[in-house]
Amino acid sequence: MWVITMKRKIYQDLLDWKNQNLKQSLLVKGARQVGKTYIIKEFGKQEFKHVLYLNFEDQLDLRKAFDDMPNPKEAVQTLQAFAITQNIFTIDGQETLIFLDEIQLCKRAYSLLKPLTETKRYRIIASGSLLGINLHGDYLDPGPTVKHLEMLPMDFEEFLWARRGESIDSVIQLIKQVAFQGEMIPLALHSTFNQDIKDYILVGGMPQVVHQFIQTNNLGEVFLAQEAIVSLYRSDIQQYQSSVDNKIKTLQCFDSIPHQFAKDNHRFIYSVVEEKKTARHFGNALDWLERTGNAQKCYHIDHFRGSLMNGKGTMFKLYMNDIGLLVSMLGKEYIYRIQNDELGLFKGALYEQLLAQMIMAKKEKLYYTRFSDYEIDFLMEYEGAIVPIECKSGGNTKSQSLQQYIKKFQPTLAWKISSNNINGENPIMLAIPHYLFALCSILELVKLHPLVKDLRSTKQ
C-alpha cells in the first residue's frame, strides 16, 4: 500500500535552524490546519533522538503548571519531570527537541522562551494557530531570541509531491528545462498539469483535505473536510475575539469573502458585509482575520513613487488563505461548476485567488492597481523594478489592461498567466501557464523572460 507523505518545504528551514547554534529558539506561525504540528513532529522524529511534546490546548495540567511558574529554573525542572513520564531522561538540545504546541494559550510559557533560550542548552520549537493574538487580542512579542517562521497551506508543488510522489521532481525539472530553452511545454504534460491546477482549485492546500483527496478520490469527502476547517475558523472567532460585538463583526466579514468576489469590482466593500456600514463600524475585524492567517489583504497602489509599500493606499481586496476553503464557502454547487467549467463571471475571481495564493507562497506581499478604466491584478517587485501580472482564467488571453499598463508605465518585465502554453514572442510580456508560474521561483520566472535572455547573450 502506498503511504501518503506530506513533504513540506518548511522542513529545510527547520533543518537549517537545527544546524545553526543554540542562540535562538524557533516560533512557527500559521493558520489552523496548515500542518504545523505534523511537520514539526516529523522533523523531531527524523532529526532528534527524542521529542518532548507539550500541547497547551489539550494538556491543561501542564498549562496550569506553567501559568504558576515563578522562574526559568522551575520550568526546566517541570520539563525534566514531564520528560521522565515519557521515558525521556535528558532534555539536552543535542538529543531532545522540546516542542511547545498551541503556546499562545499559555502566556507564561511564551515569556519563558527567552530565558530558556539564553541558557544555550535546549532546542525549543514553539507553535500555535493564533499567535497573532492572545485571549485579549493583544500582540505577543517573544523578542529577538526567537526566530519566526510562517507556514502556509501546501503550495501547488507540495500538492504534486503528495499526489504524484517525489518522482514528479524529474518531470518538473524537464518542464523548466524546456521553458528555459524557449520551447513550448509538450502538449501531454501541459494538459496533465492544467488538470492538476483544476484539482488544486477544488482541493486547495490544507494537508488534511489533500490527504482525503488522495486517499479517497472523492470530492464529497473533500468538501466535508473543507467544511470542518471553515467551521473551526468560525469557532475560533467566537472563542477568541475580544467581545461579543467583535465576534459578530468578524464573522460577518469572514462570511462575506465569497460575496466580495461575486461582483465586477473585487475590491472589499464594507456595505456588502452590512448595508450602509463603513470601515469604522467593523473596527479590528479584518485585522483579526489577517493576524490569525485566515485571510490576506491585497492593497491598491495609489502611486509608483518609490517601492510598492510606499504607494500602498487604503483600498484593498481580501483573499482567503486557501482556495479550497473558498470553494467550500461558495457552496456545494460550485464544485460541479468548477468540474464542468461552468463558472461564468466568477471564474476570473477564482483564478485571482489561485494566483494570490501562489504569490503568497513565494513570500511576497499582495498588491494591485487601477488606472483609468483598467486594472492590473497583481504587482510584484524584482530588484527595484515593478512587474505587472495579469491573471487569466482560461485560454482567452486578450490582455487590454496589461497592454495599456505597458504603454503607460513602460515596465521591463510583465507576466500574463493563463491556461495557455508558454509564449515569449512579446519582448516585454511573457505569457506562461498557471502551473509554471507556481513551480518557478521569482528568479527563474525572470530568467524565462526573452528580453532578459537577449541581454544576457549580449553581455557574453
Give the SSE map.
Blueprint: H1 10-19, E1 25-29, H2 36-47, E2 50-55, H3 60-67, H4 72-85, E3 96-101, H5 107-118, E4 123-128, E5 146-150, H6 156-164, H7 168-180, H8 187-203, H9 207-216, H10 219-240, H11 244-260, H12 270-273, H13 279-282, H14 285-291, E6 295-301, E7 312-320, H15 323-330, H16 333-339, H17 346-361, E8 367-371, E9 374-376, E10 378-382, E11 385-391, H18 400-409, E12 414-418, E13 429-433, H19 434-439, H20 442-448, H21 450-459
Parallel strand pairs: 1-4, 1-5, 2-3, 3-4, 6-8, 11-12, 12-13
Antiparallel strand pairs: 6-7, 8-9, 10-11
Helix pairs in contact: 1-2, 8-15, 9-10, 10-11, 10-15, 11-14, 11-15
In short, what is this structure?
The protein has 2 domains: 141 residues, P-loop containing nucleotide triphosphate hydrolases (Rossmann fold, 3-Layer(aba) Sandwich); 304 residues, no CATH class. It is built from 21 helices and 13 strands.
What does this structure look like?
The structure is a single chain. The chain is of the alpha/beta class and 460 residues long. The chain folds into 2 domains: 10-150, Rossmann fold, CATH 3.40.50.300; 156-459, no CATH class. Helices cover 48% and strands 16% of the residues. The protein is built from 21 helices and 13 strands. The chain has helices spanning 10-19, 36-47, 60-67, 72-85, 107-118, 156-164, 168-180, 187-203, 207-216, 219-240, 244-260, 270-273, 279-282, 285-291, 323-330, 333-339, 346-361, 400-409, 434-439, 442-448, 450-459; strands spanning 25-29, 50-55, 96-101, 123-128, 146-150, 295-301, 312-320, 367-371, 374-376, 378-382, 385-391, 414-418, 429-433. The chain has a 5-stranded parallel sheet with strand order 2-3-4-1-5, sandwiched between helices. Residues 135-139 and 453-460 have low confidence and may be disordered.
